[in-house]
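User: Structure tokens for this complex, please. No commentary.
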Amino acid sequence: MKLFELGERTAQVHDVLVTLAELAERDDARAVLLESADDPALLKPYLNRLDLVVLRFPIFRDGRGFTQARELREYLRFSGEIRAEGHILPDQAAFLRRCGVDSVVLPKDGNGDPALWEKQLRQFPVAYQRSVLPERSVGPGLRVEEAP
Amino acid sequence: MKRPVRLEPGQKLVLTANRLLDGRTVWWCADGAWDLHIGRAALLDADEAEAVLARVAGEAQRDGVVGVYDTAVQAAVPPEPVTVREKIRAHGPTVHPEFAVETEQ
Amino acid sequence: MSIPVGHYQYDRIDRDFLQARIAEFEGQVQRRLDGTLSEDEFKPLRLMNGLYLQLHAYMLRVAIPYGILDSRQLRKLGEIARRYDRDYGHFTTRQNIQFNWIRLEDTPAILRELAEVDMHAIQTSGNCIRNVTADEYAGAAADELVDPRVHAEILRQWSTLHPEFTFLPRKFKIAISGSPNDRVAARFHDIGILARPGEDGAPVFRIFVGGGLGRTPVIGEELFDSVREEHLLATLEAILRVYNAHGRRDNIYKARIKILVQAIGVEAYREAVEAELAQMDLERYRLTPEAVAAIRSRFAVPLLEAPADADAVLAQQRREDPLFDRWVRSNTHVHRDPGHIIATISLKPAGGIPGDATSAQIARLADLADAYSFGEIRITHLQNVVLGHVRKDRLRDLWLGLSEVGLAEANIGLIGDIVACPGLDYCALANARSIPIAQKLGARFADTALQAEIGALRINISGCINACGHHHAGHIGLLGVDKRGEEFFQLTVGGRAENGAAIGTILGAALPEDETVDAIARLVDCYLGRRESGETFLDTLTRLGHEPFREAAYETV
Ligand code: SF4
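Assistant:
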């Protein structure tokens, strides 16, 4: 498993990764795997002890993970690591990052080339809507860039 | 899974796809090439088509084509597709006779 | 460079963004060619940039945000048609333009040319928020309360590469209007927005959700009556968030927001949206008056000056020239300024292809827009072109100019003004050809005097259940169906997109292609024979019910 960091946070490796259903019985679990149909709000009782939430993308076209990540950051104020795994494409790097995802499990095929992920993260100088990241305005209107 | 092909008497199957680079409709020839003209397409019997299709589809990336599938034709010279859709793919849009495939160089 | 009338003027930041998008797409094409991206992966990515693979070639759909172009942009579209296509383009029911004979390898170069005039193909397809549509008479119509284009531009910007909403369950269409007379079919969109002036000067928005055509036509329901401007984006984010999380992804035909709204009911949907809003940091999503003002300042407003006798000159010319008078009657609309008028240019010549324009016609339209309407051009969702601000005393000169290139057809809103999707002549999803039927109907009712006699009657044709030709919303609707590889058409009557939106009723079994035109002619005869004075087709249909029309359509002589 090769990890790629979308931002500053260092990705951590966890030996125990449990599903949402298993979480209640595993007091030692620090990392949970959410399927795309899972409701992140169900993590509420466990957030304090979780270091990592892994969002699994069954296919890159299933965009529920983006909303899950934003809910974790915006509504649940989760401050641990969020990771995406499964079928994801480097073309989604900035979207993932802007929704609050910190790291990805790189795909095993050609889409796992870290250079592609690196490049996509730097593709766009501005965005036209606010994200969960700290941002500042660029010029008049809606445009923002990441605040350093 | 693929539905079993049922051909009427006098019908055969041809393989078709679109070219990756320009999207043009192409037909698979016996020598392995892809041609713009259905007149050069290889005519296949129903029982051999499945294996040929699987093999040719596996080479789509190398051959620079997209979406390989088979379709029924009347086994005339040149073969004529059975459905309106494939007739239009073979000959060009009916509303622009000047773009008919036959008249292109 | 002066600021264009009617649409947002890009600055350097916007242009850099566009270049970055082109570079990204070029990289994606490269990875497709070298095999790193499979076709299954590349397809959604190319669609998000407007590139389809159709029956004969790639098709590129270029965005015309809120339907507005300036003459420079229109000229560029004509050049692209000439250089990269086969000398024509097709204007769609979503106010965009499509080129039908595009090569994948040319696409980055085409996108670069488009970017020279601040145009692109971003989000003209794909399961994302699509190009936002707006009232074709925006900023010109006398009945307008709020010019919706500034907010349409805000929505365009906000939805562009939205990090959360680019991989939705299905496509997502937003329309916005600022007139009490709905000209955008607001209730046939995933989200329809009607703007009106608020008390503090900023507009408020009435929001409909869950409308749409396609396999399951649904009329949108009101979600909120009065959303304040500052909460517009927050509200849209909340609506989309509920949809993205809960919209169905297991069945492509059940994935639109309308199915979710139907399944849980509009009250439950509203509650879900309100629950999102309650958790959101509204300050973060606030649309500030400063941001609105900044975007508004990048729109030029036309300086409307007309001689005092402009109206009298037009009246005199109409009296002298009955042909011109007929065109004025069908093809113009009241402007908010008494010295000006709105002119609709029909792209529906009798027997022609609805919505198609040659590069020569496109170039001429750009010249006429410069000469008569501040260089501003609007594309309508009925596949026509509007010049929004024509001086009344110069209208006849415009009409003469249009006549020279075959664009003076006097049939707007009449039976010849047929809406048709590309259908099976081009479209990979089609069941039947839409264009030939449209051509035959156009030829059958070519006589403009007969069209005027028939009056308001809209025919809409779709080549498959995706309903790009909006057949459910046609007074007479035709839907192409495939029966064992042959083309058939299902007839509906009584649909309408205007105020009092309604979905057409299916008349009966689908007819073979070669019987369809005659059946419609009998429908029209039935109406002409039984109407009472002053009645439109819809009036007579409402009074008599469907039965006489069904009988007429299926009568076999
Ligand atoms: S309605 Fe169907 S045939 Fe017509 S353009 Fe849309 S998808 Fe194609």
